[in-house]
Amino acid sequence: MPRQIGGNQVLPPGASLGNGLTPEAAKDLGLPAGVAVAASLIDAHAGGLGVIGADVRGHGLSCEGQPVTSRLAVICGTSSCHMGISRDPIFVPGVWGPYFSAMVPGFWLNEGGQSVTGKLIDHMVQGHAAFPELQAKAAARCQSVYAYLNSHLDLIKKAQPVGFLTVDLHVWPDFHGNRSPLADLTLKGMVTGLKLSQDLDDLAILYLATVQAIAFGTRLIIEAMEAAGHSVSTLFLCGGLSKNPLFVQMHADITGMPVILSQEVESVLVGAAILGACASGDFASVQEAMAKMSKVGKVVFPRLEDKRYYDKKYKVFLKLVEHQKEYAAIMKGD
User: Fold this and answer.
1) Which letter, b or e, does each residue of 161-191 get, where b requires 16 or more Cβ atoms within 10 Å of its Cβ?
2) Between β-strands 259-262 and 296-300, what pairing exists: parallel, antiparallel or unpaired?
3) CA proximity to 184, closest of 108, 271, 93
4) Among residues 294, 297, 298, 296, which one has the least CA distance to residue 104?
5) Where are the beta strands (DSSP E) in 56-146?
6) pLDDT value at residue 334
7) Nearest 5°: CA angle at 291, between 285 and 296?
8) CB of 41 within 8 A of CB of 278?
9) Is this prediction's pTM over 0.90?
10) pLDDT at position 271, please?
11) Model confidence over 87-110: pLDDT tens digits?
12) Which tens digit of pLDDT belongs to each residue from 210-248?
């Protein structure tokens, strides 16, 4: 007979558990017994909670006058999660959920995702022939390889916007299959526009094209969510990749939406603190705690003058997966 895991009492995030910290646990942790213990969240959901409810007044954002359901939290690191909430359940093909009160109590959660993002960028950069040269030059400047690549792109772009350097280079980023919105684990990565040269310029442009491909993947997820009934106007980014200004700007430019970065870069910890503050009774609700404890650090607006260029690249992006499926069908045929 199958055995039930856990009890049958379900509590929302931030609810106070039992009588607080037990004497035994308090002794192990060096804390007073009875300290409030909150019903917790998984890390990505805590990160979403830590950013999505921030008070955005005074930044000229359209979401200031819109409900919290107009916001999409993107937790981006080794992989990425895209979390949107709604008052009523919305079923989005290829996107997980809806889950009731899974992140913000009283709201339904949809969670899209990309299987590899930060890991893909590392893979593309570290596997390039010019990577040893990049390492040496970055070390000489006491920079990370990505800070060096960003500055190198600014150097070689000349008078054009940096994103235009990839006019002939396009990437489909599903080197580990597609989680959302295609939900196809058989898909592979694609790169079109390669040349014989393998110098530092080529590495920088391939890095840029990979970052753009990840942002185009986010755009594809947003379009699927909106087609199903979500209405998204603003992105809230957190996680390791949100510390990369190129990654953030490309997401703004390619989605056409402003990107909000939290004042506290470790948004997962903010989310956990919000839950604790609710369990301790400092706030009456998670929504109140989010508004008080989540702070806007920076707003990155899209370069709307570049919209036509990114719309064209997005068409190429969609053609890549269309062609990949055609190739697979040819190889499976007689």
Assistant:
1) ebbebbeebbbbbbbbebbbbbeeeebebbb
2) antiparallel
3) 93
4) 294
5) 71-76, 80-86, 96-100, 108-114
6) 81
7) 155
8) no
9) yes
10) 96
11) 999 999 999 999 999 999 999 999
12) 999 999 999 999 999 999 999 999 999 999 999 999 999
pLDDT mean over 302-308: 97
Q: What is the CA radius of gyration of the chain?
A: 22
Q: Which of 235, 215, 193, 187 is nearest to 63 (CA)?
A: 235
Do residues 96 and 110 make contact, with C-beta atoms less than 8 angstroms apart? yes
In DSSP terms, which residues pair with 86 in a beta bridge?
Answer: 108
- In the chain, the amino acid numbered 159 is A
Give the pair of three-digit tokens for residue 319: 């053609």
Q: Which two tokens stand for residue 149?
A: 């690549």
The amino acid sitting at 203 is L
For residue 65, what are its two tokens? 């006058």
Residue 303 near residue 253, CB atoms below 8 Å: yes
The mean per-residue pLDDT over the stretch 175-203 comes to 97
Could you give the CA distance from residue 98 to residue 89 in angstroms, rounded to a whole number?
6
Strands (E), 64-199: 71-76, 80-86, 96-100, 108-114, 170-172, 190-192
Q: Angle at which helices 200-228 and 131-140 pack, to 10 degrees?
A: 100
Token pair 């390492």: residue? 135
Question: Could you tell me where the beta strands, DSSP code E, fall in the chain?
Answer: 71-76, 80-86, 96-100, 108-114, 170-172, 190-192, 234-238, 259-262, 296-300
Q: How far is CA 317 from CA 124, 131, 189, in A?
A: 18, 26, 12
